[in-house]
Design a protein that fits this description.
Layout: E1 6-13, E2 25-28, E3 36-42, E4 50-51, E5 65-68, E6 73-80
Antiparallel strand pairs: 1-6, 2-5, 3-4, 3-6
Length: about 80
């Protein structure tokens, strides 16, 4: 083993859709240029998540990602060290 490791964690972000207009969106963007990979999906949980970024690519630094508030955003962060 070369001593490297990979860690990943995820967050489920949603809003009470009764309190927002149907067109409301959750905005997500990577604010700091770090050594992590950030992936964004939509769905009610990780078992039915749908990719938000084309080709299941990682989020680009500074590029906003929008998920309708009527859906849940699932944010996955992966770090290798």
């Amino acid at each position: 083993m070369d001593g490297t490791f990979t860690e990943a964690c995820y967050w489920e972000v949603d809003g009470n859709s009764d309190e927002f207009k149907e067109s409301a969106q959750i905005w997500i963007y990577l604010e700091a240029n770090t050594n992590i990979k950030l992936f964004v999906y939509s769905g009610t949980d990780r078992r039915n998540a749908t990719k938000v970024i084309e080709n299941d690519s990682e989020a680009a630094f500074g590029a906003p990602i929008r998920v309708p508030v009527s859906e849940k955003a699932i944010i996955v962060m992966q770090s290798t060290g």
